[in-house]
User: What shape does this take?
Amino acid sequence: MSNRLYVDFHIIQTVPPSCVNRDDTNSPKTAIYGGVRRARVSSQAWKKATRDMFKTRGIRTKNIHEIVAEKIISQDSSISPEEAKKKAEKIISVAGITLSKDGETLKTGALFFISPKQAEELATLAIRNNYDKKSAQAALNANPTIDIALFGRMVADDPMLNIDACCQVAHAISTHKTETEFDFFTAIDDCSPGDNAGAGMMGAVEFNSATLYRYATIAAHDLKTQLGSAEAAADAVQQFARAFITSMPTGKQNTFANRTLPDYVLVTIRIDQPVNLVGAFENPVKGINGYVEASIERLNTYAKTVYDNYSGEPKKSLVIGNGFNLPKLLEQLREDVRNDLAD
Assistant: This one.
């Protein structure tokens, strides 16, 4: 087994007119790269879309005491809701998490990422009146769900509750220059009098369209440590791969129906370090008959240059196409990761 094992995901994907991810002014997010403006979808947006597709996932909330209280009652129905609430608040405070008044209720200062199993373990400690800080923190650090292990947890109240992320997701950017456009719309009031001409309302929605380069990487060796076995880590990588490849952030989907799938997927397994290949598009692709083919060619050419000059070839590369479809890639990836992580 190698001491390090990284799984890199490189995706080329077209998105038609859409507003997948908006800024505070409701404009599509953008970024300047290579001296030109690119369409951008934030890493947070695509991580959320990915998490939503997992079979089992953690809960991100400021109301973790309510979750623990529910677990207390489910484990011991003789405990009243009021007593369960007090026990939950006490065990959470003992663990080092600050609960503060927010109106009439208590909340944590920031969203807290907790797995159902962690909540159950805290509930068990509370029922047993075991209000020991070490035990409470051990319960919160054990049994993370896949998304907690992948994306990590940061707790300002007590760094002992932090969980390092095993996955990094880059902001997706267009491989080419983009311009924001405006869709002017009107809506007719169905109940307006027949002689009342004109729109009931009108407005404008900003949008763009792009061919995106998407990148993510997983430190599979760290994932094995978090989840406890090579088998569990391989399953997690497979789940992430399926979700990351096929997910789409939900911004303005009812307006634009922009639910596309990738045009090109390259997955590499490395034993040295992750390699983001976005440099292939620092010089923006010039579209003549679209951007997809030129972007794929640019990506593969740049990858060869980087491998030849710096990092060397990956241990293995998997590409969808030529009879190798997504189900086959997912199964092969799971097998390869499991074998490489095996003792």
